[in-house]
Amino acid sequence: MKKGLTVIALFLCVVFIIGLLVPEKYQMPVGTTDSYNHDSFWWHPWTRGINGSPHSGVDIFGKEGQEIHPSVGGIVLFSGWYGDISGNSVFVLGPKWKLHEYIHLKEVNVNVGQFVRHNTVIGLVGRTGNARNTPAHVHYSIVTPIPHFKQYNRVYGNNTQPRKYNWMKCLWLNPDDYLRK
Predict the structure, then answer these.
(1) Which pLDDT score is estimated for 124?
(2) Who's near 127: CB < 8 A, 6+ residues apart?
(3) What whole-number distance in Å separates Cα of residue 37 and Cα of residue 129?
């Protein structure tokens, strides 16, 4: 029994390390880097999230029905309706164990467990969830289970964000840092 647990723990460690070693190659999911406001991540007067929480991603605008491709390859962990705020959504687990969230899609074109690459169409630009009254876009977020502590005191916008949300900056990464590379 004890040897079996050791083998399982070793296997999980190897899988975790392999996930960290897989290289990341980012691409824009829709349009170009001119398709979104580079200051829309985190805290600006126009980007406060639900109940005043930070805006944990960037809104990339496009024509309604335009194809969305994953910013990185990975495996689809969720695909479908994710409630009245997010609407149609796709969550892709990519390299470095980062979760890539695509929210407000008009239509979802992938299934849970499916491997996706840069050329896969994961959905279409839309206005679902709380984006019904906005221009068509995809809200793109990157979430990491491995805290990036150097992000804790990073300032976004006009330096008015409440400090109570600083811990979240360690887990929600600014997509602009990755898409502009």
Answers:
(1) 98
(2) 64, 87, 104, 106, 133, 134, 135, 136, 137
(3) 21
